[in-house]
């Protein structure tokens, strides 16, 4: 097994627990103001929305999802996570947090995305064509044309994937930051 493949496996396993550690360090280092918290909503709200929207379309490991937000970017869930994370870095008023988050995304999420693409490539015949039409992360301006029937958002899938946790987590982080501001 190659080093890259080993790191991809490790990155996929540690990304969620590492997120909790990073959240703790973030809350410890954060120096928010009401202004930075308000401005951060410009990234956090679209990030939470994008994750929720994408979760309502994806059928993980069952089909190659190419409709909804997946017609614009192959990784709307990770793009949403990035928007949320960088929004909270903005809320924290810390360039250090921003740089650490950017480094973590490169070290953890890029290998995870590449690993997931290997899986999709080996399990879904249409992946190569889809990958030629739809960018890995930064979205297209228009939806890619697809020969599959347009999908629809499914509330059941959204609930199944428990994507409401992203919203609850964002609200909790804002609440903690607000309490810190009030107690200063």
The topology string of helices and strands comes to HHHHHHH
Mean pLDDT: 88
Quaternary form: single chain
Report how far apart the termini are. Answer: 52 Å
Strand content range: under 5%
Short description:
This protein has 184 residues and is mainly alpha-helical. It has helices at 3-29, 34-55, 76-92, 95-123, 127-133, 155-160, 164-183.
Write up what this structure looks like.
By secondary structure, the chain is mainly alpha-helical. The chain has one domain. The protein contains 7 helices and no strands. The protein has helices at residues 3-29, 34-55, 76-92, 95-123, 127-133, 155-160, 164-183. It is globular and about 55 Å long. The mean pLDDT is 88.
Write the layout of secondary structure elements.
Blueprint: H1 3-29, H2 34-55, H3 76-92, H4 95-123, H5 127-133, H6 155-160, H7 164-183
Helix pairs in contact: 1-4, 2-3, 2-7, 3-4
Entry keywords:
7 helices
């Amino acid at each position: 097994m190659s080093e890259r493949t080993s790191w991809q496996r490790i990155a996929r396993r540690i990304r969620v627990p590492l997120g909790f550690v990073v959240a703790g360090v973030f809350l410890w280092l954060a120096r928010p103001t009401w202004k930075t918290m308000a401005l951060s909503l410009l990234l956090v709200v679209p990030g939470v929305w994008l994750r929720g929207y994408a979760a309502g379309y994806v059928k993980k490991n069952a089909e190659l999802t190419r409709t909804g937000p997946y017609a614009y970017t192959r990784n709307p869930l990770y793009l949403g996570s990035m928007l949320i994370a960088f929004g909270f870095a903005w809320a924290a008023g810390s360039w250090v947090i921003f740089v650490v988050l950017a480094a973590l995304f490169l070290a953890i999420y890029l290998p995870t995305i590449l690993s997931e693409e290997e899986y999709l490539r080996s399990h879904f015949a249409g992946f190569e064509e889809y990958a030629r039409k739809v960018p890995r992360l930064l979205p297209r301006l228009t939806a890619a044309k697809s020969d599959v029937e347009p999908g629809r958002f499914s509330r059941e899938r959204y609930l199944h994937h428990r994507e409401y946790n992203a919203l609850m987590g964002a609200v909790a982080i804002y609440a903690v930051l607000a309490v810190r501001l009030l107690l200063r």
